[in-house]
Amino acid sequence: MQKLFDDIKFLDKRCYEQYKLTEELLMEHAANALHNFISKNFSENSSVLIVCGNGNNGADGITLARLLQNDFDVKLYLDAPITSDISKLQLERARAVNVAEVPKIEDADVIVDALFGSGLNRPLGKKHKELISQINELSGKKIACDIPSGLMKDGTLSGSVFNADITITMGALKKSLYSDMAKDKTGDISVANLGLSRSIYEDKTNWHLLDLNDLKLPHRTIKNSHKGTYGHLSLLCGEKEGASIIAGSAALNFGVGLATLITHENPTIPYELMKATTLPSNSSAICAGMGLGNSFDSNDLQNMLVDSVVPIVIDADLFYNLIITKIMNKKNIVLTPHPKEFISLLKLLNLADIDIEQLQQNRFYYAELFSSAYPDVVLLLKGANQIISYQNSFYINPHGTSKLSKGGSGDVLSGIIGALLAQGYSLLEATISASLAHSSAARSVTKNSYALTPNDLIKELSCL
Description:
Distance between the termini: 19 Å
CATH architecture of the largest domain: 3-Layer(aba) Sandwich
Mean pLDDT: 94
Shape: elongated
Number of strands: 19
Helix content: 25-40%
Strand content: 15-25%
CATH superfamily of the largest domain: Ribokinase
Radius of gyration: 26 Å
């Protein structure tokens, strides 16, 4: 798990004041990280075009040009006259070693974007939009210095955005790199050391990035056990029974001892799943909402969900049902909405009345808004990068893939969260591990990206 920050200016300031490092020293380390990556991954004498703005991000690029000079064919493009003292100093040094400056952009083996850094907080003008569009048309490998130019500080896009193959961000990870909109712009992301270990450079934050090794699988270590040892998950089976069948099958493949579908109908179900008309008394967790429709009346939902004392996973149709306003008074629930479901939930709870575009432009804000109102509820907001919130702490899972853009994928996720809750995981532990297992299983499927099915996911869960 890694830390995420809105802004790192206060971290840089702390370096100057507490650790006696200078702005120039941090800049040299930033440029050196870019230099090391290029030297390691490209052959000597490869051509490198460095496109620089007139701020400190541009100064990083100018410093890089000096470090690469003679070992590579370096071309420096200055977007505007240099104004800051440190940029002028770095340009003098670059000119002293005869770095070539070019009047217009030209293709190269490597393209380095050093136009804007992490502080971009206003939309780009026409000139820079056109410049970035030109750069994107070049064929070279594209590296963003700190943050791809055109990516705003809040994670939104400003018209044209540099399409990076890799982003080398300075000092610490920025939250903006993990907005849904940024996912197709950043490429691979790594952090440059600025002269201090990240454990020293970084400070406290309530936003974190999940790593795949944060996954805690439900391995069975108790030898003297039986199916009841590993929990009993009950799933409300509604009009579209396939959804709860998928969730129940996923739960069985992720360690739960028993999975029972609660239904008033007589659906054909896999032999390994159980079926009942009322909630079993030994249920240790419940999943509800997937394909639910109108199969259960308000009294049923009151008895099984509002009055229940076991952990509950809420998904899909329940985000449009007024019963959710009663369920929200509980402290043992996990919510797993996709964006359309989340905006319905926000409206029913009188937190916000917005459309999907407004949500997607401000996913971080609305996750924080919800968590502030309901800190004891775990939220998993689905998207290209899932956001998990609990007690005003936030976790982003960036490991999802477009393979998961398929009906039934969310039902698998609900089932495996329920499975972990039934086995005794805490609300947050179950949600984080299930989210990572879901992503890992999808990444493990060897089919073409368009061909994944829920059954593929379920099969891979047993092999993690």
